[in-house]
Amino acid sequence: MNNKEKKPIIVVKDLTARFDDNVVFEDVSFQVYEGEVLVIVGASGCGKSTLLKIMIGLQKPYSGQVLYQGMDITHAEEKELNQYRQNIGVLFQSGALFSSMTIKENIELPLQEYTDLDPAKINNIIKMKLGMVNLAGYENHSPSELSGGMKKRAGIARAMALDPRVLFFDELSAGLDPVTAAELDDLIIKTDESLGTTMVIVTHELESIYKIAHRVLMLDIDAKGIIAEGKPLDLKQNATDPRVKSFFLRQKPAEPAEKRFYVS
Asked: Which residues contact 261 (CB under 8 A, 6 or more apart)?
């Protein structure tokens, strides 16, 4: 099924982000479709994380809208935002686990805040989520006792606690060794295939992008917006924009002729 036959679960319309006189990006528009893994890429400073924060509802844009199933979260009241937050899960680059709490207590937080479930049911959910990320039996460990990859998996378990319809990940594989990063990629694929969860992921790891992404959006710091959209292999093989080719082929763009220096 192509995207035209799918329903968009999130619609981003004419989004502009700026800090004082610094425009990060402007008039950005795209859709996120149900069940897809959308990866956002681009060089540092192009606004990837800013875009993610606006989509999550943590930051207000200068102008434009983010619609979740028709609800404008950029202008929503706190009650509506809480409703939205119950339908999404978020994992930031650091994992953002509370160091003073056990893994169990970290995962309990969203369940206690947004549900009226009794402790026995909450415990069952925690065990199930930890089992899904291969951390069964680690309920009473503290984050300091876990490796970097295990912390990321614990963060994913917490993000999935409420069975969200959309997961947002910011640099999921940052700072991890290749084997651990590949294990997280496999977890993303497994979650997508078994639960059909929609995912929006910011990353710069090419190997992960080719492995997990259904579609890629590329932002550019100079264009202040989207310069490419499509399947990762299509962009690698068919892109004509030198900035896109440079990213997907890991090649430095050729300098303009007037900037080259020739030595005879």
From this structure: none
